[in-house]
Amino acid sequence: MSDTATENPGGKKPFERDSVSNTLIVAIGLSLVCSVLVASTAVLLKPQQERNEELFRQRIILEVASLMEPGADISELFSTIDARMVDLETGDYTDSIDPVTFDANAAAGDPELGVAIPADLDIANIKRRARYAPVYMVRDGSSIEQIILPVYGSGLWATMYGYLALENDGVTITGLRFYAHGETPGLGDQIDRDDWRQIWVGKEVSDPEGNVRIEVIRGAVQDDGGSGDSRYQIDGMSGATLTGRGVTNLVQYWAGPHGFGPYLEQFSQSDDAS
After folding, report:
1. What is the distance between the alpha carbons of residues 164 and 173, in angstroms, rounded to a whole number?
2. What pTM value is reported for the model?
3. Distance (Å, rounded) from C-alpha 132 to C-alpha 249?
């Protein structure tokens, strides 16, 4: 008699522990148990994951504003920053949406909260955007020192997400920092290098007539003392021309008339601007 069967004096079919049906029952049972454990763990860890993501976002905003300090409490530093929501069409602030919980990607796909971008304006190649966007203001007492804008657009391989910081004139750049992208290691990922990011500081997104002119060029910027085109130009990245073009397009889009343009125009004329 087989080792896997037990005798049954009543004549019934013997129980086989290694049968296909029993193997399936055990496998399904283990799968269900594992699924419950994984789901439970995900639920328990979700608040901490969301908190970590929020702290990471806050740290990037602090870094682009040059406010991050080694070992400092991120939440405490971020408390000096005022977050407001902006209606991108009008450039007006709105209090109807919470900037802390706002999800720009989800809103972009929502028929009511999102809008399709006309093809001739979609230089960032993102197809749709939310009707609203958060802006982050660095204050010194009642005055605004910097405004920080979320920006994103297509790179060579994936969407690049970052923040653009401007002085309170709404024109002069104080920083550009990407926190998510899929650019080629050793080439396109030069956008993460401190020396390249430093080039942006002091450049201007637009000219006195309001035309958005900031761009990453091919090669190095020619020194003209800052009186000519050089104030709108950023050195190109060797071997990463397409990534540089993507950065140009996304910054120009978000600083332009279909992005934060209406807001920046209003801001530059307000009492908050220098």
Report:
1. 7
2. 0.81
3. 20
140, 82 Cβ separation under 8 angstroms:
no
Contact 88, 149 (CB under 8 A): no
DSSP 131: S
Comparing CA positions, the residue from 165, 164, 234 lying closest to residue 199 is 234
Per-residue pLDDT of the chain (274 residues; tens, 9 = 90+): 444 444 555 555 555 666 667 777 777 878 888 877 777 776 665 666 767 788 888 999 999 999 988 888 998 889 889 999 999 999 999 999 999 899 999 999 999 999 999 999 999 999 999 999 999 999 888 889 999 999 999 999 999 999 999 999 999 999 999 999 999 888 888 999 999 999 999 999 999 999 999 999 999 999 887 778 999 999 999 889 999 999 999 999 999 999 999 999 999 888 776 5
Report d(CA 151, CA 77) in Å as an integer: 22
Rounded distance between C-alpha atoms, residue 204 and residue 86, angstroms: 22
- What amino acid is encoded at 26 in this protein? V
If you search the block for the tokens 């900031």, which residue do you land on? 214
Question: What ranges do the domains of the chain cover?
Answer: 1-73, 80-268
Helix, strand, or coil (residue 51): helix
Q: How far apart are CA 205 and CA 173, in angstroms?
A: 7
- Number of residues assigned to the chain: 274
Nearest to 145 by CA among 67, 70, 207: 67
